[in-house]
């Protein structure tokens, strides 16, 4: 038996981690809502990301969401994993804010994110 660890790498032009985006200035409500809607789009397609955090979510210069680091990702039927990944992302955002209190992330931002997420789920 043998194992190969093949890695596919593509450079995405103008992409920055969410952590960097929110360090640069306070994103508006529309940003958080569109981010929530984009995450819902991944979830609706069954995309499970085992480590959804503020570094693995990347935003390009057009405002599009990219998810990186799918080494433990897979496609799943809807289920409790969706809420688990949202909790993981929320913990990540809270953690990086605790490390840098000047970081632009608040409870209101998270509420806007959830509004976008759940609005997308209602319109799907």
Could you describe the 3D structure shown?
The chain has one domain: Transferase(Phosphotransferase) domain 1 (Transferase(Phosphotransferase), domain 1). The chain is 47% helix and 10% strand. The termini are far apart. With 124 residues, it is mainly α. Helix 2 crosses helix 4 (107-123).
CATH class: Mainly Alpha
- In terms of DSSP E residues, the strand content is 5-15%
What is the helix fraction of residues, given as a range? 40-55%
Please summarize the sheet with the most strands. Answer: 3 strands, antiparallel
How large, in whole angstroms, is the Cα Rg? Answer: 15 Å
Unreliably modeled segments: none
Structural class: mainly alpha
Instruction: Output the CATH topology.
Output: Transferase(Phosphotransferase), domain 1
Q: Order of strands side by side in the largest beta sheet?
A: 1-3-4
* CATH architecture title: Orthogonal Bundle
Tally the beta strands.
5
Integer average pLDDT: 93
Shape: globular
N to C succession of SSEs: EHHEEEEHH
N-to-C terminal Cα separation, in Å?
A: 45 Å
CATH homologous superfamily identity: Transferase(Phosphotransferase) domain 1
Number of helices: 4
- Total discrete domains: 1
